[in-house]
Specification:
With 523 residues, the protein is mainly alpha-helical. It contains 17 helices and no strands. The radius of gyration is 24 Å and the shape is globular. The C terminus is likely disordered.
């Protein structure tokens, strides 16, 4: 049956291709959706918050569900929900409906991806899993790479709603492909699923990811209250998990170096990737000389770079220790962050795309190598829950990168703008009230006539003053976010040293069952 494994696997990848592309569609659309609904840069992370929280919290649960009832059923259900979620976004009259659609998109994602990932050890022996992972990454990055440019073109032509209309249609095609051509997978022993635990866990994740938004809108006291609530909910969840026979998060797995170290590394890397991607997307969208298509190119270059090197990574994974690729990816990440620190409003689009190329290399190398480490270091009967746990941490870095990254960038640029305006006002001899009027002009676009007269007498143009302040504010945002990412990468470089003592498990992969043979032959 293994001679047919590649056919099954490719159909699976074609099926989820459209769902992966749908996720890439959203990134270039976020600045335009935020503007349409009147959401500030610092608060734009709310648009991805619920989708991310659902995907993170539910991935281990649905990975375990796939172990029990068969992965195909779970993947098909996920694609159905995904289609409905994207359709709701198309017709949303208000941001609240959009958020509901985002929530269901996260549910669909959690149903689909851990189970496609878990098909790898079911379909392939150990010596072929590197190639399978490389192909998984190739399809993933083709989807996400083309998604950015397509999204930018759609937005420029028909507006952001067209992005989700196309996404719903393509996801429907994926649903049909998997329904028709993928045979049923092995079923494991049925057991109770921890729905109560996953509900509490999702609450905890939502609180964690939403803390930057709480601070932005309500201040420090609410932030402290939210953080305390998160800790309490998390402690309750962990106590419940200790008593569960089939917990949402298997704490025993998190004691294994082959699971917890890759989980930490991928979470931090994804924070870096998303925070840099989103900040540069907003930077480009704020530039009147950059079109929506060019904004989409930022996402496209990130994932296209990763796509191009994915086949090479698959080849290397089957021949070398994946830990070597982990260190190579960290080096690429360092280079990307250093280049990012040099970006400002005067930087060319090519400079921004170069940053994303190095970030893409880092992402591709690290994802693939850590995936193989997790697969090889997990007991055979827990492949689904271990891949779900890894997916949980992988996805945790994405919303934190979006919400916290945009919050840091938004607040830093806002404070940088205020500081630049205040400094200019002091040089011009303006009073406090006039300084406030200049700061408010960033939103209103105009100043009182008396203030305009004062500026004219000083031979200063209002638009140039705002432009200069805006450039300085962007520089402040980039510096703050870049230094934070640089510090985090130093930390994960140290943590990754723990992988050197790792000894992968050697596990025989059983032949696929007769039912699969029959189904495939009928197809």
């Amino acid at each position: 049956m293994r001679k047919n494994s590649w056919f099954i696997y490719i159909v699976l990848l074609l099926g989820i291709f459209v769902a992966l592309e749908a996720n890439a569609f959203s990134t270039p659309a976020i600045p335009y959706i935020s503007a349409d609904f009147g959401i500030s840069v610092a608060n734009s992370g709310v648009l991805t918050l619920l989708a991310s929280a659902a995907a993170i919290a539910l991935s281990p649960l649905f990975g375990r569900l796939g172990d029990q009832i068969g992965r195909k059923k779970v993947i098909v259900a996920g694609l159905i929900i995904f289609v409905l979620a994207q359709t709701l976004k198309v017709f949303t009259p208000h941001v609240s409906f959009y958020l509901v659609g985002a929530l269901f998109q996260g549910v669909g994602y959690a149903l689909i991806f851990p189970n496609v990932f878990a098909y790898i050890p079911e379909l392939f022996p150990t010596e072929k899993r590197g190639k399978a992972i490389g192909l998984f990454m190739l399809f993933s990055y083709i989807a996400t790479g083309t998604g950015g440019a397509i999204s930018g073109a759609l937005i420029e032509t028909w507006g952001w709603r067209s992005v989700y209309a196309v996404s719903a249609f393509l996801s429907l095609i994926g649903l049909l492909l998997i329904s028709l051509f993928v045979p049923k997978s092995e079923r494991g022993k049925k057991s109770e699923l921890d729905y109560k635990g996953v509900t509490i866990f999702m609450t905890a994740i939502t609180l964690l990811v939403g803390l930057p938004l709480i601070y932005t809108n309500f201040g420090v006291s609410w932030l402290i209250g939210g953080a305390v609530t998160f800790v309490i909910v998390l402690l309750v969840f962990l106590q419940m998990q200790k008593k569960e026979k089939n917990p949402t998060v298997d704490l025993k797995l998190l004691k294994m170096k082959g699971v917890y170290i890759p989980s930490i590394l991928i979470a931090v890397q994804n924070f870096m990737m998303l925070s840099i991607l989103m900040s540069l997307t907003f930077l480009a969208a704020d530039n009147p000389n950059v079109s929506a298509l060019q904004v989409g190119m930022i996402t496209t270059v990130l994932f296209t770079t990763a796509m191009v090197i994915s086949p090479l990574i698959g080849y290397l994974l089957d021949r070398f220790n994946p830990i070597y690729l982990v260190y190579l990816s960290i080096i690429s990440g360092f280079i990307g962050i250093v280049l990012y620190l040099r970006v400002d409003m005067t930087s060319s689009l090519m400079t921004i795309l170069t940053v994303m190329a190095f970030v893409g290399i880092c992402s591709s190398l690290l994802n693939a190598s850590l995936m193989k480490i997790v697969i090889n270091y997990t007991p055979e009967d827990k492949k689904g829950v271990s891949t779900g746990t890894f997916t949980l941490f992988k996805d945790l870095g994405l919303p934190i990168g979006s919400t916290l990254g945009l919050t840091i960038y938004g607040l830093s640029t806002s404070r940088g703008f205020d500081s630049a305006i205040t400094a200019s006002a002091t040089e011009l001899g303006l009073n406090a009230e006039q300084t406030v009027q200049l700061i408010e002009a960033k939103t209103t676009g105009e100043i009182p006539m008396a203030l305009d007269t004062i500026l004219a007498q000083a031979n200063v143009q209002f638009t140039e003053l705002l432009s200069t302040a805006n450039m300085e504010s962007v520089a402040a945002g980039i510096q703050t976010l870049g230094i934070i990412n640089l510090a985090l990468f130093i930390v994960i470089a140290l943590i990754s040293l723990g992988l050197l003592k790792l000894k992968p498990m050697s596990v025989e992969v059983p032949e696929l069952n007769v039912q699969q043979n029959t189904v495939l032959e009928e197809v």
